[in-house]
Amino acid sequence: MTYAAATSRRSHPRRGRSLAAAISLVLALALAACTPPAQTPSGSTEPERTLVVGATNEPASMDPWHNVAAAIPQVLLYNVYETLVKVDSSGEIKPLLAQRWEVSPDRLSYTFHLNPSAKFASGAPVDAAAVVANINRMKGDAKLIPTLRTQLDVVADATAPETHQVKITLNHPSIMWLYDMSSTLGMILDPAATGDLNTTSAGSGPYQVKTHNRGDSVVLARNTNYWGNPARFDEVTFRYFTDPNAENASMLSGDLDIISNLQAPDALPQFADTSQFTTVSGTTNGEVVLGLNHQNKALAKLEVRKALTMAIDRRALVDTAWAGQGTLIGTMTVPTDPWYEDLSGLIPYDPDQAKALLKQAGYANGLTLRLRVPELPYAVKSAQFVASQLRDVGVKVTTEELDFNRWLDEVFINGDYDMTIVAHVEARDLGKFADKSYYWHYGDPKFASLYTTAVEAATDDQATQEMKAAARYLADQCAAIWLFALPNLVITKAGVAGIPQNATTLSFDLTTITSR
Predict the structure, then answer these.
(1) DSSP symbols for 413-480
(2) 290 phi and psi, to 5 degrees?
(3) According to the model, what pLDDT value does residue 19 have?
(4) What pLDDT score was predicted for residue 366?
(5) Distances, alpha carbon 159 to alpha carbons 111, 127, 132, in Å
(6) pTM for this structure?
(7) I need a labelling partner for 516 at 20 to 30 A (CA). Which of 95, 255, 354, 464 fits?
(8) β-strands 258-259, 481-493: how paired?
(9) How many CB atoms within 10 Å of residue 368?
(10) Which residues contact residue 153 at a Cβ distance below 8 angstroms, ignoring those fewer than 6 apart?
């Protein structure tokens, strides 16, 4: 969930692609000839309404509770699995399965009043018992991913006082908990589901997973039993590309309706014709972080971390690697966070001072570091720039590009790296630095104390001020090198509307999209 990546599709030679395309076309024409149009309840026929979304990162599975890849909730969140509350495009928490909720004065109890119409695709009700069963399921799941385990630790108890009323009691106040419940932690699974969640889905959303074509696409089909406003499309296909130029070409040729996030920002002029395309430009939660392994002896020194920060011209990096698109950040916050401050200039670019700090730290004769990054456009381009600039101040960098699954195993899980670059796309994820077991192994007790004080603050205003203090401490300590926040660059065909300006959640939310 924390990473803007998943397994990648390998490119085939052009000749093989041409042959495959020809075969696919013949099969498609044959199927079209023998498949009748969809029928309306009155018996008349109308063409199927479909949507094809280009995306970069294919989910390794369809089980968001046991795989951290952000590509999974990108497809499933709000579309297939719903939550008690959801976050809108401005970052505000709104009702979804819960029509309303109350918070006790001590901020320890939350009472949710569920929509009595809500039901799973199976027809079973989304009632209080189902919500409690989901919380208990996760609490008893020894294999639950650590991020969800940490988010769930605050929950002391969940009960169902009435059929459509859920009461959740916390161990301590938390300004983060309700927000966490709008994402993967809060996705409600049908308690009666017994299938393999890698290949099936059992949610209450307007869509269901139809097929996962490994190495190519995920197809969602309209949930005909949906309890709310019907899905606007009969079928939605997320088609995955490892080559951003190939994705752009598919959009230009009319094979895609949407590019979910443009991975080659220098290609924006190709979509300038407003009679054919619409460009949506905003921001995301994706902090592109040059992560540092604090178990490395050199990187454990503040002087070294500060030197590395000062050695990198981050404005030039964004201009070079991402065509000037994106927001410079100086800590683990983005513009849509309530506690955001622009700290991008706190540690300025100064290569001469960087050299002096390295000498002060005992590395006048040089330092060698391994930079291991996933094979993603922003990570690869940024790594090339970073390696060049660090060499200019006497730091030798060996760079290695890894398939995401290998990166996940070797870097994220086993900590085999000195530096890495990846976009952390979970919302409001400042707290990752308070967890020493997390792959950065930062674990500064002062930061952990600052963060806990902020999370458990008595009021939202107090929490915001405390979060600002915690974020500034991270920046002062150069706990990582924050390169930029990924922009939200969405390209659509003319006639496709409803795309929010900012990507404030992990979801590519289909429920707002329309097409004519």
Answers:
(1) IT---SEEEEEE-STT-GGGGG-TTSTT----HHHHHHHHHHHT-SSHHHHHHHHHHHHHHHHHTTSS
(2) -85, 90
(3) 34
(4) 85
(5) 10, 12, 6
(6) 0.83
(7) 95
(8) antiparallel
(9) 11
(10) 171
- Nearest of 410, 415, 470 to residue 445 by alpha carbon: 470
Which uninterrupted H or E stretch holds 307?
helix 302-310
If one counts every other C-beta atom within 10 angstroms of the C-beta of residue 153, the result is 12
CA 176 to chain centre: 17
Distances (CA, A) of 272 to 241, 322, 494: 22, 18, 11
Amino acid (one-letter) located at 225? N
The number of C-alpha atoms within 13 Å of 277 and in the hemisphere containing its C-beta is 22
For residue 316, which of 408, 226, 385 has the smallest C-alpha distance? 385
Hunting for tokens 């969930």 — which residue is that? 1
* pLDDT category of residue 230 using cuts at 50, 70 and 90: very high
* Mean pLDDT of the 173-183 span: 93
Under a CB-based contact definition with an 8 Å cutoff, are residues 184 and 73 in contact? yes
| Helix, strand, coil percent values for the chain (each to nearest 5) | 30, 25, 45
Classify the C-alpha dihedral 374-380-386-391 as positive or negative: positive
Distance CA 57, CA 74 (A): 10
* DSSP characters over 104-163: -TTS-EEEEEE-TT-B-TTS-B--HHHHHHHHHHHHT-TTS-HHHHHHHTTEEEEEEEET
Integer Cα distance of 224 and 384 in angstroms = 49
**321 token code pair:** 């690697």
Length of the chain: 516
Supply 122's token pair. Answer: 């199976």
Is residue 395 within 8 A of residue 358, CB to CB? The reply is yes
Amino acid at 260: S
Q: Residue 253 corresponds to which amino acid?
A: S
- What confidence score (pLDDT) does residue 34 get? 40
pLDDT at 43 over 90: no
Interatomic CA distance for residues 258 and 253, integer angstroms: 12
Residues 131 and 112: their CA atoms lie apart, in Å, by 10
Strand partners, 7: 58
Contact 284/334 with Cβ under 8 angstroms?
A: yes
The closest alpha carbon to 201, from 64, 1, 71, belongs to 64
